C-alpha cells in the first residue's frame, strides 16, 4: 500500500462507527423505527466481530505506518532523483 495514512483513516473511522453502534442504542432505535426490531437480537453477532476486525485493522495500519515512516518514505522522496 502506497499510503498507510488512508488505511489508518479508514480503520479509525470504521472502529469509531462500530463502537458507537455497539455501546449506544442507535441501531436499536433505528431498526425499531423502520419495523425491523426483530433483528436487534442478532446485532451482537455482527457488531462485535466487526469491532474486532476494525481494531485489528487499526493496529495493522499503525504498525504499517510506523515502518513506512521509519524507512523515510515520503511523497517528496519518491519524486526526486539522485544527481548523477
Automatic annotation (TrEMBL):
<dbReference type="InterPro" id="IPR021091">
    <property type="entry name" value="Mercury_ion_transport_MerF"/>
</dbReference>
<keyword id="KW-1133">Transmembrane helix</keyword>
<feature type="transmembrane region" description="Helical">
    <location>
        <begin position="12"/>
        <end position="39"/>
    </location>
</feature>
<feature type="transmembrane region" description="Helical">
    <location>
        <begin position="45"/>
        <end position="63"/>
    </location>
</feature>
<dbReference type="Pfam" id="PF11431">
    <property type="entry name" value="Transport_MerF"/>
</dbReference>
<keyword id="KW-0472">Membrane</keyword>
<dbReference type="GO" id="GO:0016020">
    <property type="term" value="C:membrane"/>
</dbReference>
<keyword id="KW-0812">Transmembrane</keyword>
<protein>
    <recommendedName>
        <fullName>Mercury resistance system transport protein MerF</fullName>
    </recommendedName>
</protein>
